From TrEMBL:
A Pfam family reported for this protein in Swiss-Prot or TrEMBL: APH
Organism of origin: Nocardiopsis endophytica
Domain Aminoglycoside phosphotransferase residues, every copy: 45-258
UniProt-recorded name of the protein: Phosphotransferase
SUPFAM superfamilies: Protein kinase-like (PK-like)
Domain of life according to the entry: Bacteria
Transmembrane segments annotated in the record for this chain: none
């Protein structure tokens, strides 16, 4: 049982063992000090798999689990300058936890800035976010050596994906129609994915992984970069623009822009199967994270990944509806 969080527990650490969160914070403070930073003066930035603090001219990112960031650091150093990723000042491990220090870049986290943007600015941000992502895709031949063929929400094998699907089915008690659709969509993705061109995808193309300063100035956090169909990034772009924090579909200029982009870049033959499959795999991963949380009082049907997954399995196709018709 995870101990109860204290009143001063950061919202991003709720659901985590407070003693472990304190360990990670302590390690981050030690790393920040090496580069002239004081964690007490730095602000906590968005992010779930890693803890990040920004300020004093640097950004410190440290993994919550004992994994290193050497592969990600190598990829980042190989990225074209136009991607805008901040300069890496150092990387290493502390008690097994990988860390990376980058230069602080002027701008706000796009997820935090999003509610303050006008509809036109949101549409602009979607186009600019995709433009920087396309730079990564176009450089795939030179970046591929630093990226694996699975990771993030993309399982290594169909068997792994089907195991996640069975766990979701058991937890959510899916109807027979949704269960059949789930298996069909997952199997369809793995069947056609080998038939299309693969490139380096960001793998976690979320608003929180970009910086905004009147325009999108940087694409961040390549820890889940993966070789695969471009639909891996497209499904996330559409979800970010068309779905609210609560998991409700939003009709907006940004959403329409994302759909237009996806329609243009999807594979002309297998695009529907790939973007649908990638979106379902994305929610299966998120649902797995939710299921692993200890002591949550939310009903399963209120979980955002549950709401998104079940809608993707309905005839309308959830937030991907306009692309699946």
């Amino acid at each position: 049982m995870v101990p109860e969080p204290s009143e001063d527990t950061h919202p991003l650490d709720r659901g985590r063992d407070p003693s472990h969160a304190a360990l990670v914070r302590g390690l981050a403070a030690e790393v920040a000090a090496r580069y002239g930073g004081d964690l007490a003066r730095m602000r906590r930035a968005n992010g779930y798999s890693n803890a990040t603090w920004v300020g004093d001219g640097i950004a410190v990112r440290i993994a919550h689990t004992p994994v290193d960031m050497a592969r990600e650091a190598a990829l980042v150093r190989a990225l074209p300058r136009e991607v805008g990723h901040p300069e890496i000042l150092g990387e290493g491990t502390a008690e097994g936890h990988g860390w990376m220090v980058t230069a602080e870049v002027r701008g706000r986290n796009l997820h935090e800035a999003w509610p303050t943007l006008t509809p036109a600015e949101q549409r602009q941000a979607v186009h600019q976010l995709w433009a920087r992502t396309r730079i990564v895709h176009d450089a795939g031949s030179s970046l591929g050596a630093h990226v694996a063929s699975h990771g993030g929400f993309v399982p290594a094998t169909l068997g792994d994906a089907m195991a996640a699907a069975k766990r979701a089915d058991a937890a959510l008690e899916l109807s027979s129609a949704r269960r059949a659709r789930l298996h069909e969509v997952v199997e369809g993705y793995f069947r056609v994915a080998p038939e299309v061109e693969h490139t380096v995808n960001h793998g976690d193309l979320a608003l929180m992984n970009a910086l905004w300063d009147g325009e999108v100035v940087a694409l961040l956090d390549f820890e889940f970069a993966v070789l695969g169909p471009v639909e891996i990034d497209l499904c996330r772009l559409v979800c970010e623009a068309r779905v609210s924090e609560e998991g409700r579909r939003v009709d907006s200029e940004a959403g329409r822009a994302a759909v237009e982009i996806a329609a243009r870049y999807m594979d002309p033959v297998h695009g529907c199967a790939l973007i649908h499959g990638a979106a379902v795999l994305d929610q299966l991963r998120d649902l797995g994270i939710w299921l692993a949380l200890d002591g949550t009082e939310e009903r399963a049907e209120d979980w955002r990944p549950c709401r998104l997954l079940t809608s993707l399995l309905d005839d309308e196709g959830g937030y991907l509806g306009p692309l699946l018709r």
